[in-house]
What we know:
The protein is α/β, with parallel strands linked by helices. It has helices spanning 44-59, 103-107, 124-131, 155-165, 167-176, 182-188, 200-212, 216-230, 235-242, 245-256, and strands at residues 20-25, 28-33, 65-69, 74-76, 113-117, 120-122, 134-138, 142-144, 180-181, 193-195. The protein has one domain: 2-enoyl-CoA Hydratase, Chain A, domain 1. It is built from 10 helices and 10 strands. The protein is globular, with a radius of gyration of 18 Å.
Amino acid sequence: MNEGEAPRPPEGDWLGTPFLRFERSGSLVTLSVDRPEKRNALTPAMYFGIRYAVDRLNGDATLAGLLITGTGDVFIPGGDMSGANPDGWADLPGLLGMDNTPFDAIRRSPKPIVCAVNGIAQGGGMMIAMLSDVTVASERATFRAPELFRGIADTHYGQILPRQVGPARARDLLLTGRELNAAQAEDWGLVSRVVPHDQLLDEAVSALRAICRTGPEARAAVKKSMDAFYGTYDRAAMDASLMGPEMTEGYLAFKDRRPPAWIPDDLREDDGRI
């Protein structure tokens, strides 16, 4: 889509937004998140476009696997909370349910998906990294889940993260909003490989090629068992939170660059997670 052109829905390898690129190389495809002016923050169309790319992968017999990566020093920082709407979709908060986001599609994809985390991975970006079949991180990558600082009861994170890193570490990550560097993320089990930055794509492609050589039906059966390990999350509670007053206040506070009203006065100056 060129500047000034009306938004149009996904079709073929066009993902419905100029901020995602679906690039084929033989039987493999690379999905690049490319919105540098907003540090790769996802618009509603970008969320859905990633989901569409997974469906495109699985619906095309000529494709074997998908690589997801970002541009510059950012992988995916989560959703764009600034209120920007360049793709012509409705505002983000009303579109964060799992029918619009790519997480379930990535988690249950019959064909393999590998992430090459080139930099900052937060919120939805960290979730995508966890749910991919293999995630390779640059030594420069960082990871964080800031949802509670936005007033969002992300019960999906509450379900997935303890099974990924264990309950104690999951509580630490979610309740304090702490940031992990790449080495810590590998040690905790958020990602499986960390490599020098200039080796990131080669390592990720190598992993994807290896997975694509496994038996498709056998692989799907194993992936189904691993998916069952994650279990189900409380979607009703998350949907209620996304429409609730805390989410609204968290969204407005972030947009206005101020502390949310729920933070006590004597704690505001110590809060570095606005």
